[in-house]
Amino acid sequence: MQIQKEDSKERILKVAKEEFLIKGFKDASMRVIAKKSGVGLSNIYNYFRNKDEIFCEVMSSVLAAFRKMVDDHNAPEHINLNVFTNSDFQHIMINDFLGLINKYRQELKLLLFYSHGSSLENFKEEFIQESTETGKAYLQKMKEKYPHLNSNISPFFIHTISSMWMNIIGEVVTHDELLDSEIEDFVREYIAFSTAGWKRLMKA
Known about the structure:
By secondary structure, the chain is mainly α. It folds into two domains: about 1-55, Orthogonal Bundle (Arc Repressor Mutant, subunit A); about 60-200, Tetracycline Repressor, domain 2 (Orthogonal Bundle), CATH 1.10.357. About 75% of the residues lie in helices and about 0% in strands. The protein has helices spanning about 1-25, 30-35, 40-45, 50-60, 60-75, 85-115, 125-145, 155-175, 180-200. The longest helix is centred in the middle third of the chain and has 27 residues, at about 85-115. The termini are far apart. The model has no long low-confidence stretch (mean pLDDT about 90).
């Protein structure tokens, strides 16, 4: 019985994901999800309270990937001047970004542009704010480790950089014509540009 229940739940999530990707959250139909999953509409509510809960479950993997990206930013090994010069650090950043895009391209597009009406519709603004706080904490940790660094950087600048990063993700996922090699070239260029700018700003 438990196996059958879990199988039904997975079918609902699989069909719901397809429906969300095609129509966005607002226009996705619970009736269509019920019909295509083979689970009666009333029975769906035995698994999920509402459409929003289904949506959040569908998006849980990409949300976890974003969370990991934020956590990794302040990881002890990144509190190091080598981030400005070491090609291995930059290679990791490139691979992390490409991994996120390659694995969750459609989910990212859905999350950033077609989540209106859901509890995740403000994700972009909330993530920018969280990234701003993460950036401020990162500067403080770098200053503690390297007192000679300049950490007197305006919060609005950090906020703007965080916003730009989210817009970059949005640009990449909406340009379906981009080849993987073109995305990799762009990310490499952006990281080189960004790293040089932070190095000069922090007087590293």
